[in-house]
Amino acid sequence: MRRKDCILHNMRLPLEGTHHRGNDDAWNSAAILAELLRLSREGRVVPLG
Questions:
Q1: Which of 11, 12, 23, 25 is the most exposed place for a label (fewest CB within 10 A)?
Q2: Under a CB-based contact definition with an 8 Å cutoff, are residues 20 and 43 in contact?
Q3: What does the alpha-carbon distance between residue 38 and residue 29 come to, in Å, rounded to a whole number?
Q4: Which pTM does this prediction carry?
Q5: Which GO terms describe its molecular function (predicted)?
Q6: In sequence order, which ranges of the chain are alpha helices (DSSP H)?
Q7: Nearest CA to 17 among 7, 4, 28, 2?
Q8: Which of 46, 15, 11 is nearest to 28 (CA)?
Q9: Which residues contact 24 (CB under 8 A, 6 or more apart)?
Q10: For residue 4, pLDDT beyond 90
């Protein structure tokens, strides 16, 4: 995966640990969810479709 295509990069979140390692992927997924929830609370998430 190219870095610029990575959702972590697009959301300006750091990549924790090693890419495609179970525990690290879980932490990174949780960081994405937490950021989406934060943005949603602020009204800054626009639904697609």
A1: 12
A2: no
A3: 14
A4: 0.78
A5: nucleic acid binding
A6: 7-10, 22-41
A7: 28
A8: 15
A9: 16, 17, 18
A10: no
How distant, in Å, are the alpha carbons of 5, 9, 22 from that of 35? 18, 13, 20
More confident residue, 1 or 19: 19
pLDDT number for residue 45: 83
Q: What pLDDT does 49 receive?
A: 66
Residue 49: both structure tokens together: 């479709």
Amino acid at 35: E
* Tens digits of residue pLDDT in 15-42: 999 888 999 999 999 999 999 999 989 9
Residues with Cβ < 8 Å from 48, sequence gap 6 or more? none
The span from the CA of 11 to the CA of 21, in Å, is 20
